Amino acid sequence: DVKVTQSSRYLVKRTGEKVFLECVQDMDHENMFWYRQDPGLGLRLIYFSYDVKMKEKGDIPEGYSVSREKKERFSLILESASTNQTSMYLCASSFRGGENIQYFGAGTRLSVL
Amino acid sequence: QQQVKQSPQSLIVQKGGISIINCAYENTAFDYFPWYQQFPGKGPALLIAIRPDVSEKKEGRFTISFNKSAKQFSLHIMDSQPGDSATYFCAASMDSGGGADGLTFGKGTHLIIQP
Predict the structure, then answer these.
(1) How many whole angstroms from its chain centre is CA B102?
(2) Looking at residue B9, which CATH number applies to its domain?
(3) What tens-digit pLDDT sequence spans chain B (115 residues)?
(4) Which residues of B touch A33 (CB under 8 A)?
(5) Is the Cβ pair B6, A56 closer than 8 Å?
(6) Of A19, A50, B77, B79, which is least packed with CB atoms within 10 Å of its CB?
(7) How many angstroms separate the CA of residue B39 from the nearest CA in chain A?
């Protein structure tokens, strides 16, 4: 079974803190993605990566950055957390080519106070 | 700009009935249309998907109907069961030519199947 593991289920941070959300996949997938999920808004793509050290902006990249130093690990960074970044963050991975099946982690619920 | 519009936002169906969720898209470059199912506390999981070269795809009790000219697609759940109670998301993506293809999601439908 594909496993996408997000390091924290819940996080509480203060406004202005630098926040790291970590994601690890065990299926040797080339592609990795970060989405945020908000009630009534569905999932929105923040950043994605198709290879180590490669990154692409999604639909809502403002206030976020990412890092991919190893194939299995994709980190989402909030440089200076703000209250409007309180959300559920979901990581996903997929194989390059073929059907675009994305496998999701269980999510990290981040609260910024 | 919302590129994938999903309706209804919530839906209550009696056990054994048919659940129908609809989506409409705007970008004609989309060429892959999946449906994801999400249970509370879990991440979304792929349920069924379709490409625009076919008008219908069926897997067990789940069917996608696709209308390319209308730019609409829908999910039908036959003989709905209480275990189908979940949030359903339609999505769409386009072929980036070998790179990663992010998904554009609808806003979701909260489905409740009453026993």
Answers:
(1) 16
(2) 2.60.40.10
(3) 568 999 999 999 999 999 999 999 999 999 999 999 999 999 999 999 999 999 999 999 999 999 999 999 999 999 999 999 999 999 999 876 656 789 999 999 999 999 9
(4) 100, 102-103
(5) no
(6) B79
(7) 10
